[in-house]
Amino acid sequence: MSDVTGAADGDRRCPCTSGLTFGECCGPILSGARRAPTAEALMRSRFSAFAIGDRDHILDSWHPRTRPRRLVVDDGIQWYRLDVESASGGTPFDNTGEVTFTAHYRADGERRALHQRSRFERRDGRWVYLDGTVEG
Question: Pfam families per the record (predicted)?
Answer without folding.
Answer: SEC-C (PF02810), YchJ_M-like (PF17775)
